[in-house]
Design brief:
This protein is an alpha+beta fold and 172 residues long. It contains 5 helices and 7 strands; from the N terminus they run E-H-H-H-E-E-E-H-E-H-E-E. The protein has a single domain, classed as Aminopeptidase (3-Layer(aba) Sandwich), CATH 3.40.630.30.
Amino acid sequence: MTTGIEIRAFTAPDAAQVRDLFVKVNRLLAPPDMKEVFEGYIARSLGEEIDRIEAYYRERDGGFWVAVEGGRLIGMFGLEPSSGSAMELRRMYVDPDARRRGIARMMLRHAEDECRRRNRPAMDLSTSELQDDALSLYRSAGYQLVREEVALSASNKTLGGGIRRYYFTKPL
């Protein structure tokens, strides 16, 4: 199912495809009545993080990876420290045209292995109520819900706008 897919560290030539995937997925997630809010979130995230991936994750002692198949970027994710013993999974997206093939699970395992390699025995992550497949994946992979909140204010990590967010952790 995932044969021929390579997960590797982000390099500068990946930037345009990472940007395109980020914008594509977030536009697809936007409920009709929240399109404007999502466009603001996309613009903020591009400026603060996505358009400066290498610097953003280097400044935080993290990393960013891409899943590539046949030269095409089909997935991505980042990690940044969330505590002295944990990393936070960020920006895990799979291209809609490549979904339902185990790519997200493959990237999740890679992220967990990277946490172990960095001597971080736990991984934290969050997702929104708009991402049912992600919620199912994290639960089936052994992540435990630690809290829920309704995000009212926006940042590069959350949309705001009253969307419910779920926060998970897993000892590795």
